[in-house]
Amino acid sequence: MLKALYQALADKPWLLLLGFSFVVSSIGNGITYIVIFSELIRLAAPTTSLALAYVLSTVPGLIGSKIGERYCQSANPFKILIVGECLGMLGLLAPLSAVMTGSIPMFLIAQTASAFTIGMTFPAISKIFKTGLTEKELPVATTLETIIFACYVIFGVCLGLLLLGHISVMSLLVLDASSFVIALILLRLSQSRFAKTFIKVSPSQAQINWRTLSGVQRRGILLLPLLALAAAPAMALLPALVPPTFSGSEAQSMALALLFARSLGQLAGPLILNPEKFEKKSNSNVLMVSCLFAFITCYGLVPFSPSKYLALAFIFMAHLFSNVVFSLAIYTILKKFDEVHISAAMAKSYRLQMMVTALVSIGAGYCAQYFGVVYSLYLFSGTGFVLIVMLSLGERWLKQKSVNFRSEQQ
């Protein structure tokens, strides 16, 4: 995959500039993420607040994705990326106010701006990739899209962990603002080097009707929500999964290290896939179920880890497996929908994923408050996994029934 990614970036300057713009922006976003979660942990925020913080870092994307989807129908998607960066810069006022007041609710509100802009950019990025890349290069687009969102924490968390405690929180937020300015410049340069023309369509043409979609297209849209069903409860509870052998500042450092290990796994996941086998692997329910089982198993072992290194390894492996599923889900949508419908399909999948994330994360957070983090993790992620297995078996049964019916007709 690394070779294919290098070739695509070398052949397409706009893709290289686009990737750099998101990496730079991710540095700032990751720093803000560290500021928010480290302050929530320092203020001894309850588990419900940690889960709610995770929800607020994703759910406002529902509105953002709808705006992004509609805008991509008739305008250049690069423009909405630029608007998103501008809104992200303005959104820094929320964490600034939260730091000055020390208010837990304000820290939670600070999550919404980033989620909103991510929701806006998700359908726009998909349309850019679908238009600018060939079908053979779609696995590269999938990997790059995964890396872009993994870098949100990879670079930002790494820098944030190094600087946290050495410079003021205000200085960290200024660094964040600077990253937005640089990202805007890179986006403009990328747009100027993009040679292809985007198809403009009316809202009625771009709309997708669930009843007219093929089984493969429906499956593609549902893969991300299904991933969230099993993974979101665990990810929402991650800061609270620190083994009981840690306490005080050591527990805070361990929680942040777990977040960093999570992002390393997200980055490594798509890189282990062979781009030539994406089509075959994306159709495999067995692979998806196996990866999610490995994900839940690794998370379930974290609270009982006798060593911090073992706990970090479990989180790394968990997200390596989950992001294999994520990459294949993105690829399936890019592959099975044309340029006219790609933005609507990606936005629909994203919104379903966010709704599932909100429901299971809030439920897991409140359950953890009363029954404990470990019990909540097993209950919600385990139930999600069982439902996924049942749906996979149901899909297989329907396929077999359809084949038998056609055989009888012949």
TrEMBL record:
The chain crosses the membrane at residues 14-36, 48-68, 80-100, 106-126, 138-163, 169-187, 221-242, 254-273, 285-304, 310-331, 352-371, 377-398. InterPro entries: MFS_trans_sf. The keyword Cell membrane applies. It is found in: Cell membrane. It is a multi-pass membrane protein. One of its GO terms (cellular component) is plasma membrane. PANTHER family: MACROLIDE-EFFLUX PROTEIN, MAJOR FACILITATOR SUPERFAMILY (MFS) PROFILE DOMAIN-CONTAINING PROTEIN. This is Putative transporter. It comes from Buttiauxella gaviniae ATCC 51604.
